């Protein structure tokens, strides 16, 4: 068994409106060209688990970057910044899309980039990944891990920051999409996942959905009791198989 | 799930934060994924001073059960304390 070496660091990138922010970057150090993947964190912010995910992608041969979506509300510890953002009702969708596009540009500019790039997000980041898939034309793959509020049944939840339910933008989705869901999850619940799949099918999109029994929300997260090792191991295999196929040069 | 729901309570008093004591005027209360506590969901309370820009906070993330126990304890402490102080004043 080999243990691929990698380099992980915090880098500066240009996000929405050219604003300068931070991203956590990890990449293999061996020679070669690697696909890029943008990793979108969940609502509480840029936490230790998301940096573990970034390094996991580098371990598996990807150049991965997780933009700190709350950098404008710093300086400070990411958890304190996340608390400020929560109190302010989150960040605007337009800003997230701009920051993800900026992180993509950063990855594309690296000498060892293979020309392909995907996005993956977890929880609210899964919703953001779906949204980016619909709004960023040059993505090559999208992975939505249990993104809540892709389907918005209560329209009163829409507001100036999140004005449109991502499901209503599905016609614009160009990249193949992988969805990973726990059948015990309440947001998205099984019915919402089914409706999302029905929409993608009706529109003729390229997608694959994997639903797991005995798993709820955030079942990849090793630091939570929601962690389900067997389902998570299979889910990660699905993620890497999908991305290796879609992001091959 | 990640929610954006925050209950804001106006409070009056002080809290001891990373730079020492500070005045506070708001408690942001939510039930969502915690940042640190090893729980799927936690009751979070951030004590801040919005009048001073809310740049610092005193934070807790506790389980739903312990949050309900805390509510009972607060109510019990207020009841017994107010009764004791009223008797002392007589």
The best one-word shape of chain B is globular
Question: Can you tell me the residue ranges of chain A where pLDDT is under 50 for at least 5 consecutive residues?
Answer: none
Strand percentage of chain B: 35-45%
Computed CA radius of gyration of chain B, to the nearest angstrom: 15 Å
Q: Which CATH first-tier class of chain A would you pick?
A: Alpha Beta
Strand numbers in spatial order across the main sheet of chain B: 1-2-3-4
- Name the helicity range of chain B: 25-40%
Mean pLDDT of chain A: 96
Assembly type of the chains comes to heterodimer
Unreliable runs of chain B, pLDDT <50, ≥5 residues? none
Put the structure in a nutshell:
Chain A is an alpha/beta fold. Chain A has six helices and eight strands.
Give me the secondary-structure topology.
The complex is a heterodimer of chains A (249) and B (90).
Chain A: E1 6-14, E2 20-28, E3 34-40, H1 48-59, E4 63-67, H2 78-87, H3 93-108, E5 113-122, H4 124-135, E6 141-145, E7 177-182, H5 190-202, E8 207-212, H6 229-246
Parallel strand pairs in A: 3-4, 3-5, 5-6, 6-7, 7-8
Antiparallel strand pairs in A: 1-2, 2-4
Helix pairs in contact in A: 3-4
Chain B: E1 7-17, E2 20-32, E3 42-48, E4 58-62, H1 64-89
Antiparallel strand pairs in B: 1-2, 2-3, 3-4
Provide tags for this entry.
heterodimer, A: 249 residues, alpha/beta, Rossmann fold, 8-stranded mixed beta sheet, 6 helices, B: 90 residues, alpha+beta, 4-stranded antiparallel beta sheet, 4 strands, 40% strand
Report on this structure:
The complex is a heterodimer of chains A (249) and B (90). In chain A, 33% of the residues lie in helices and 23% in strands. Chain A contains six helices and eight strands. Chain A has helices at 48-59, 78-87, 93-108, 124-135, 190-202, 229-246; strands at residues 6-14, 20-28, 34-40, 63-67, 113-122, 141-145, 177-182, 207-212. Chain A has one domain: Alpha/Beta hydrolase fold, catalytic domain (Rossmann fold, 3-Layer(aba) Sandwich). Chain A has 249 residues and is of the alpha/beta class. The mean pLDDT of chain A is 96. The longest helix of chain A is centred in the C-terminal third of the chain and has 18 residues, at 229-246. In chain A, α3 (93-108) crosses α4 (124-135). The radius of gyration of chain A is 17 Å and the shape is globular. Chain B has a domain at 7-63. In chain B, strands 1-2-3-4 form a four-stranded antiparallel beta sheet. Classes of the chains: A alpha/beta (249), B alpha+beta (90). The A-B interface holds A 42-45, 47, 76, 79-80, 82-84, 86-87, 89-90, 123-124, 148-149, 185-187, 216-218, 223-226 and B 1-4, 6, 8, 28, 30, 32-36, 38-40, 44, 46, 48, 54-57, 59.
């Amino acid at each position: 068994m080999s243990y691929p070496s990698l380099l992980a660091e915090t880098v500066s990138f240009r996000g929405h409106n050219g604003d300068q922010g931070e991203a956590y970057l990890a990449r293999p150090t061996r020679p070669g060209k690697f696909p890029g993947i943008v990793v979108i964190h969940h609502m509480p912010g840029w936490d230790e688990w998301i940096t573990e995910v970034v390094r996991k992608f580098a371990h598996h041969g990807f150049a991965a970057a997780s933009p700190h979506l709350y950098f404008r509300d710093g300086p400070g510890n990411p958890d304190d910044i996340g608390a400020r953002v929560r109190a302010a009702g989150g960040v605007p969708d337009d800003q997230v899309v701009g920051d993800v596009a900026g992180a993509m540009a950063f990855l594309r500019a690296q000498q060892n980039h293979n020309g392909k790039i995907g996005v993956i997000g977890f929880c609210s980041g899964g919703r953001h990944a779906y949204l980016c898939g619909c709004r960023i034309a040059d993505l090559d793959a999208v992975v939505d891990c249990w993104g809540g509020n892709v389907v918005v049944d209560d329209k009163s939840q829409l507001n100036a920051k999140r004005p449109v339910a991502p499901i209503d933008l599905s016609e614009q989705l160009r990249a193949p999409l992988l969805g990973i869901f726990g059948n015990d999850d309440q947001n998205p619940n099984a019915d919402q996942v089914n409706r999302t799949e029905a929409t993608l099918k009706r529109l003729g999109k390229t997608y694959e959905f994997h639903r797991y029994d005995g798993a709820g929300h955030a079942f990849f997260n090793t630091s939570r009791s929601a962690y389900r090792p067997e389902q998570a191991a299979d889910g990660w295999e699905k993620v890497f198989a999908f991305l290796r196929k879609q992001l091959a040069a | 799930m990640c929610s954006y729901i925050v209950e804001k309570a106006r409070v009056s008093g002080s809290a001891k934060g990373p730079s020492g004591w500070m005045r506070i005027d708001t408690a942001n209360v939510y039930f969502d994924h915690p940042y640190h506590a090893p729980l799927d969901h936690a009751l979070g309370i951030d004590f801040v001073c919005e009048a001073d820009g809310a740049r610092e906070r005193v934070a807790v993330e506790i389980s739903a059960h312990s949050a309900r126990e805390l509510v009972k304890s607060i109510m019990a402490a207020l009841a017994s304390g107010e009764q004791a102080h009223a008797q002392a004043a007589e």
